[in-house]
Write a structure and sequence with these properties.
By secondary structure, the protein is an alpha+beta fold. The chain has two domains: 1-32; 34-255, no CATH class. Helices cover 18% and strands 54% of the residues. The protein has helices spanning 2-32, 59-62, 99-104, 107-110, and strands at residues 37-48, 51-54, 71-77, 80-96, 113-119, 127-132, 141-145, 150-157, 161-172, 181-189, 194-201, 203-209, 212-218, 221-227, 230-241, 246-255. A hairpin with an 8-residue loop joins strand 6 (127-132) and strand 7 (141-145). It is globular and about 80 Å long. The protein starts with a helix and ends with a strand. The relative contact order is 0.18.
C-alpha cells in the first residue's frame, strides 16, 4: 500500500514537473520571439440593420475628444475613392504584433521585417469585428469571404511591395480545440495568374466576435507575396472552407 502511494506521489510530482517545464518553455519561447509593430485601424462604430453599434467600452475611445466622430474606411481603387458602408474607424493605432501572428509569418519574410501597415481593399459589405479576453484583438476589423463574395485589392507603388494577408476562420464554440480545419482562398492578378492559398487552423477560446456568442475565431495564418513596381490588381476569392467564413486582413510589410 505504501509502495503504491509512493508511486502515485512520484507520478503526480512528475506530472507537475512536466507541466511546469512546458509552461516555462512556452514563456521562454514567447519572451524570445521577435517583436514587430502593426499599425491598423480599429473599428469605432458600425451599422447593424441600420442601427449604429458604438464600441465605447474601450478606455482609449473614452479619452477621445467629445466631438470626435471617427473616420470612415477609405478605399482607393483606380481613380475612384469609396468608403466601406456603415463602418467608421478611430484612426490608426500602433502596437506590438500578437505573438501568435508573429509565429505565423513565413520565415523567409520574418528576418528583416520591421512592421505591418494595414491597407484596405475595395469595399465589401461582409465583415467581422473581433474581441478578446486580453484586449489584443478588441475592435479588430476583418473582411469576410464566402462563396458569394470576393475582395479586390489594388496596389500602386513606385517600388516593389510585399503584401501580407492575415487570415482566420469562424468556428463554432462547441468545436473541440484540437480539431484541425482547412480553408483555401485564391489570389488572381490582372494577367489571370491564380495562386491558391491553403491554410489549416484550430479553434481558440480567447478571440471571439462582437454580437456573435456562438462562434470564435481560429488560430491565424499569414500568407506573403511580392508585388512588382507599378499598378496591380488582385482578386481574392473563396475556394473552400470547413470552418465557416474566411476572415481576411491586408497589410503592406515594411522592412529594416
Amino acid at each position: 500500500m505504501k509502495r503504491a502511494c509512493l508511486v502515485l506521489l512520484l507520478l503526480l510530482a512528475a506530472g507537475i514537473a512536466v507541466a511546469g517545464c512546458a509552461a516555462f518553455i512556452r514563456n521562454l519561447k514567447e519572451a524570445n520571439a521577435p517583436e514587430y509593430l502593426w499599425k491598423r485601424q480599429k473599428v469605432f462604430q458600425y451599422e447593424v440593420d441600420g442601427k449604429v453599434v458604438p464600441f465605447d467600452e474601450d478606455a482609449a475611445l473614452k479619452a477621445l475628444p467629445k466631438n470626435y466622430t471617427g473616420e470612415p474606411v477609405v478605399a482607393y481603387f483606380g481613380e475612384s475613392v469609396t468608403t466601406y458602408p456603415g463602418i467608421a474607424f478611430a484612426g490608426f493605432t500602433e502596437s506590438l504584433l500578437p505573438v501568435d501572428v508573429t509565429e505565423a509569418i513565413p520565415k523567409e519574410y520574418a528576418k528583416h521585417l520591421d512592421s505591418l501597415l494595414e491597407i484596405h481593399p475595395a469595399p465589401s459589405e461582409r465583415f467581422a469585428v473581433l474581441k478578446s479576453k486580453n484586449g489584443d484583438w478588441n475592435r479588430e476589423f476583418f473582411l469576410a469571404l464566402n462563396e458569394s463574395s470576393q475582395i479586390t485589392l489594388m496596389v500602386d507603388g513606385s517600388t516593389a511591395h510585399t503584401i501580407m494577408i492575415l487570415s482566420m476562420v469562424r468556428i463554432n464554440r462547441d468545436e473541440p480545440l484540437d480539431n484541425t480545419r482547412k480553408y483555401v482562398y485564391s489570389i488572381e492578378d490582372e494577367n489571370g495568374n491564380v495562386k491558391e492559398v491553403p491554410a489549416y487552423a484550430t479553434r481558440r477560446n480567447d478571440v471571439l466576435f462582437y454580437g456573435v456568442e456562438s462562434e470564435s475565431a481560429s488560430t491565424p495564418h499569414v500568407y506573403a507575396f511580392k508585388v512588382p513596381e507599378g499598378k496591380h490588381i488582385y482578386i481574392v476569392k473563396f475556394k473552400y472552407s470547413d470552418g465557416g467564413d474566411i476572415l481576411l486582413k491586408f497589410f503592406e510589410a515594411k522592412f529594416r
